[in-house]
Each structure stands twice: as structure tokens, then as C-alpha cells.
User: Fold this.
Amino acid sequence: MWKAFDGDGRLVYGSWVDTLPSLMPMYWVRAIGGTLYLSGAILFVSTSWKTINKGQRPFEEKASAPALAPLAAGAEHGGFKHRMLEGKPLQFTVWTTVAIAHRRRRRDHPDHRHRVQRPDHRLGQALHAARARGPRRLHQPRAATSATRR
Amino acid sequence: MSSQAAQGNLEHFEYDDAIVRKFTVATMIWGLVGMLVGVIIAFELAAPALNMDLPWTTFGRLRPLHTNAVIFAFVGNGFFAGGYYSTQRLLKARMFSDKLSNIHFWGWQLIIVSAALTLPFGITTSKEYAELEWPIDIAIALIWVVFAINFFGTLAKRRERHLYVAIWFYIASIVTVAVLHVVNSLALPVSFFKSYSVFAGIQDGLVQWWYGHNAVAFFLTTPYLGLMYYFMPKAAERPVYSYRLSIVHFWSLIFLYIWAGPHHLLYTALPDWAQTLGSVFSIMLIAPSWGGMINGLLTLRGAWDKLRTDPIIKFLVVAITFYGMSTFEGPMMSIKTVNSLSHYTNWTIGHVHAGGLGWNGFFTFGMLYWLVPKPLEHQTAQPSPGHDALLARPGRHLALRHLHVDLPVCPRA
Assistant:
């Protein structure tokens, strides 16, 4: 409906709000469906609540396991590579975080180098002119100052 | 296990289920609140007069309350409940610090309450799923760090060398949510309740949807896939279908997901190549997503009869099926041609509810139906040497298990 065009290529329903009346029945269906889901959740909470209240302190479970033995070199876990990566979760996590948080410095970025080195380029000139005129907050190239432009 | 027992002394310890119980109760309460607000605003759309002409009850202010409540309060607490339960068992260690567990719990609830107080008053950054203002953002970051220290501390003192895939999913969730939240929330405060994002224009849009889409990925998907890998085999009493598939789909999922954000910005000022990049990565995501779905469903091989009788399995199977459907629908909607039809329509809202109600909601119900009677079983069980006998929960058969072997799904155990 919202993409219906007439013979001249104009939108049949020129305003977005025209689609709203036809959606109204579906909005009611959604509200009723949501109420059904909510009533299921209420059932879930009421029955679980009764079970939870039967619990007694302390809320603990006894367990026993052997202490972690030191890893014999290359003895298990698919050898060296696996041990170096998946076998060392803490170190691996730290290095992964460093890797994704690392960012190249702006002046090393190829886009930036291009703009600074070739200011005579027509598009580049237009960009520099626009930047010199407009609000200059982001991406201010060091080469283009408003003084030289004026 | 005998070879391991020979290597070290047998240690006795207790799993902390009090924190699991707290997060479970919080999940239930906030679930009801979040869904109730959702129903209210659904009725407001059908009958706008229901907002009673008050600013605090308008759709625009209640909608972020609904999304924050169901994502961060309902699903968040659900993840913490299942996560604290399964992490201790998978690592064979009590949580690193009970104090940190409790700071995490009460801090998180306080954040939720402050969200419920600020959003109806219109105090918002207007960034979708990151509406909370900067003081609350800082609190979220701090509490998340507390959670991370507690989790990684437990990892450091674990008694099980092998890390089951669920733990990898938890690690990815904790690390990535921290990075996403901090970067997207970078803002300059102008007053206690108002701040401006450090990003501007389309860059702000891209950062926002890099965050927004990965809130879906690393708050609603990867934590719950981790839970699925623990609770599905437990509930089905079968080993996971393929351990290899779980590892392959984990690494491919977390690599691909982080690039998919730009599909929220199709037909905007975002450069064309970035839009296409987002589409391509979104379509590639079908493979690892369905890897998870297949692995979850096929864990039931040989036990499909339980689908007829076991309500927990019913819930989990519906959840995983919805996961498969919405991770197919999502990539389809990121195709530009489809998106030209679907964007800015209720299809998008329908899509996110297939994931939210189907995957997260049904999985939470199934998981908690399995989890809630658990402590009762321990309390009624008669301890016997070397065993912890588990009495049956109502409607299910008696089971006797070695709790020492808590990795039925890991090839070594």
C-alpha cells in the first residue's frame, strides 16, 4: 500500500499517515496477542513462585572435584596451537580486547593521506572550501586553514 | 575422571545457588513488568487515548521503558541466573566472590529501577537501546566490570581444564558488551540528566547501530546460546549433537555479527559501500546462526519423544526454532530490495519480537522450569558416598547422576 503508484508515478497514498487506518485492525491483533503472551508469563511466574518458596536455606549444592593439575607440555587438548589459544582463556580474552579496541592513528589512514597530499583535486578543493566556510568540528585537515582561503 | 583424580586431591566445595535464586526472582518480576508495559503501549497504538494525555504515559516515553525492561532486566537477569548456575558447574568452582555476586545483583537491579524512573520523565539520550543518561551509563559500566571480575576470577580458579563452549559464549558476551556499551555511550555531560554524544551525524548513526545490532547479538543471542549449550543437553539428557560444530559456529558467529550493524542504516546517508558491507555480513550470518539452531535441535536426536511429554523440552524447542526463523528473517530483511519494502514498517517490530518472545522468552521459561525445582532436589536428596542423588522433579522420572561429571557434552568427560 505504501508503495502504490498511479499511472503518472505518483504515490497513491501521498501521506504516510494514510496507511495508518488500514493498520488499525492489526494493532488490535497485536495488543490481544501480547495480552495472551503476558497471561502465559503470569502463569509461569505464579507456578514458579510456589516452587521457589518451597526452597530452604542454605541455597547451596555440595560438590567435589579434583584440583586443577598443572598441564603437562603438549600432552593434551590437541597440541600446541589449541593450548596457546583456547587453552588460555584469560590471556586470550585480554589480547582479543586489545585487538578490537586498537585503532590506527588518523594520519596513517589512507583516506586522510589522500586528501592532504592532493588538495588540487577538484573534489578535494570543493571539500576544503566547504570546510573552510562551514562549521569545522570533524576532519579538519591540517593543511587547509581559513586564513589562506580568505 | 579417574586419571584426573589421580593428578590432584579431591576438593569439596559448595556451588552458590542463592545468587541464582535472586536473579531468577528478578527475571520473573522484571519479565512481568517489561511485558506489561509492552502490552500497554500495544493498546496505546490501537487506542491512543489510553495514554490519558499525560506526558509520562505516552508511547514515546513508555516504549524505551519496555525495550530496556525486557532486554536488560528480563533477558539480562535471565542470563545472569542461568549463567551463574552453569558457570559454577562447568568450571567446577564456586563463584570467585559472593560479595561481587551480590554487588552485581543489587547494582543491576538499582540500574533497572533508575531506568524505570528516568525514562517516563523523558530523561533520555534518544539512542535506541542506550537511552539511559550518562550517570546510569557509568553505573552500568562499573557493574559490568564487577560481573567480569567475578566471572574471570572463577575462570582462574576453575577445576576443569577444558572450557566448554558455553563458557566461550559467556566470555564473548561479557567482553563485547563492555566494549559496545563504553564506546556508544561516550558523551559530554552538560548537566546531571543531559549529555551529548561525542559522535555526530552519520558517524553517530553508525556507532549507534554498531552498538544497537550487537546488543541483539551479544546481549540477546550469544549469552543465550551459551545457556542453550548447557541447558538443552541437560534437559534432553543427551550429549550435544556436535561439539565441533559448536566451536566452529561460535567463532564464525562472533566474527560476523560485529559487522552487521549497518543494515539498520540502509537507504540513509551512510555511504553505499558500508550499507552493502552490512548486508553482506548479515546474509553470511545465516550460516553460523543456523549452525547453532541445528546443534540445539539435533541434540534431541533419539529423544524426540520427550517433545510430547516434557514441557521443558517443548519450551526449548520452540525457542530454538524461533531462533532459526528470526535469524533467517533478519538476513532477508537486510537485503536492500526487501528492506526497501520492510524498513520503517511494523515488519521490523514483528521481527524483533520473533526473536525476543520466541527465542529469549521461551528459552527463559524452559530454562527456569528446569532450574527452579533444582535446589529442592538437592535438599530432598539423600547423600550417599561418591554420589549426589537427584530426586525427580514432579512429572519427570527419577534420575541418578554423578555430579562429578558435569560435562556430559564435552568429548573428554
